[in-house]
Design goal:
Shape: elongated
Order of helices and strands: HHHH
Oligomer: single chain
Helix content: over 70%
Radius of gyration: 19 Å
Distance between the termini: 28 Å
Length: 144
């Protein structure tokens, strides 16, 4: 189960990274904010890629928590900027985009799968260690 969750998280984050990297040049012309849309997309792609590798390398609770934060925040941003024109938010540009297309679907599905799998992984990773500790406590003294 742990391997499947890790692969789901990594694949979802990889889809997120790919779509953001490919669309970064198109976001260079987004108005507002101190951070350009292209830079924002490149940062998201890099963070998603790095976190995918972290989850594949370390199946720990902190790795799953980090993956959940990255994936869930990306889903939240897509949904927010699809439905609401919030304008520029501090240093962030106005990313309002009330259209839907295949690449956006790939991104949101990947991020959603990654977020759900990371949430499940967070609880599974914690449970496995607790069960191991409880089993060791139940062992009779001197039993190997």
């Amino acid at each position: 189960m742990g391997l499947i969750l890790r692969l789901l998280v990594a694949a979802g984050l990889a889809a997120d990274a790919y779509v953001h990297w490919v669309f970064a040049p198109d976001m260079a012309f987004v108005e507002g904010g101190a951070i350009g849309g292209d830079l924002l997309f490149r940062i998201q792609a890099a963070v998603a890629g790095v976190v995918a590798v972290v989850v594949l390398t370390y199946a720990s609770r902190w790795a799953y928590a980090l993956a959940f934060l990255v994936a869930a925040s990306a889903v939240g941003a897509i949904v927010l900027y699809y439905y609401v024109d919030v304008g520029a938010l501090g240093p962030l540009p106005d990313m309002y985009e009330p259209v839907w297309y295949a690449e956006k679907t790939i991104s949101v599905v990947g991020e959603g799968i990654a977020a759900l799998a990371a949430l499940a992984g967070f609880f599974v990773a914690g449970r496995g260690r607790r069960e191991d500790a409880e089993a060791l406590e139940r062992e009779p003294a001197g039993h190997i």
